[in-house]
Amino acid sequence: MLVSAKEMLTKAKEGKYAVGQFNINNLEWTKAVLLTAQENNSPVILGVSEGAAKYMCGFNTVTAMVKGMIDTLKITVPVALHLDHGTYEGAKQAIADGFSSIMFDGSHYGIEENIEKTKEIVALCATQGLSVEAEVGSIGGEEDGVIGAGEVADPNECKQIADLGVDMLAAGIGNIHGVYPENWTGLSFDTLDAIQQLTGKMPLVLHGGTGIPEDMIAKAISLGVSKINVNTECQLSFAAATRKYVEEGKDLKGKGFDPRKLLNPGFEAIKATVKEKMELFGSVNKA
Ligand SMILES: [Zn+2]
Prior knowledge:
- This protein is of the alpha/beta class and 287 residues long.
- The protein has a single domain (6-281), classed as Aldolase class I (TIM Barrel), CATH 3.20.20.70.
- The chain contains 12 helices and 10 strands.
- Strands 1-2-3-4-5-8-9-10 form an 8-stranded parallel β-barrel, surrounded by 9 helices. It has a two-stranded antiparallel ribbon with strand order 6-7.
- Strand 9, helix 9 (214-222) and strand 10 form a beta-alpha-beta unit.
- Helix 2 crosses helix 12 (264-281), helix 5 runs parallel beside helix 6 and helix 10 (232-247) packs antiparallel against helix 12.
- The chain is globular and about 60 Å long.
- The structure holds zinc ion.
- Zinc ion binds next to loops.
């Protein structure tokens, strides 16, 4: 059964750990993340961007696939199916198609318009018991064609958005989607601290979790981060394992071309990455 992310994140904030959001791209990805969550008795959030949903033939197809897997694989840990960086229209579609959690990213609007649109999405989600993530201060890097400059959020604006009834808040603190550049200056912990002091119990979300050093992850969790998004890192480990299989010529041996064999090393690599992150975030045995 799909659940909203509210309860798992409230528990995470209280227990000083974080729940991973792992973005999914296809059947193998989804199966790998769900099985790893179950094996590690960890709550999990499946992230789906609008671009990934389009690739997988729509939110309705994704919902049906995830629900089918939860049933067939006997997944009993809490699973939230979460729209990642939703537009206003995309959020409405994902709600209609059965997602259990919605991120509305109004960070590219001015604060007034961000507030107005976030309010509407919050009201819509409230009628169906869905959790809502809002964003203040865009996250750096590119995600599905949306380019953010890596702003540092204004803590007062974070407080304004947090007070709208959202369940989790993403704030730019110098984090970036994708691989971090050599000259990256690190996370702004002063900003994070100021945001937490103003927003209290609100679970905070750290986007761009790929490649943030372990000590910074631990510090971010200690300052109120309860959800960490991981996307690129699974893509990199999947690609590396698949490349290795092909470079070793395994696809040319026997039935090595069978997609169930060809995609298996990548599947196992995603599982290993997800397990590593669950251990790092502290969500193992917190289901
Ligand atoms: Zn993001």
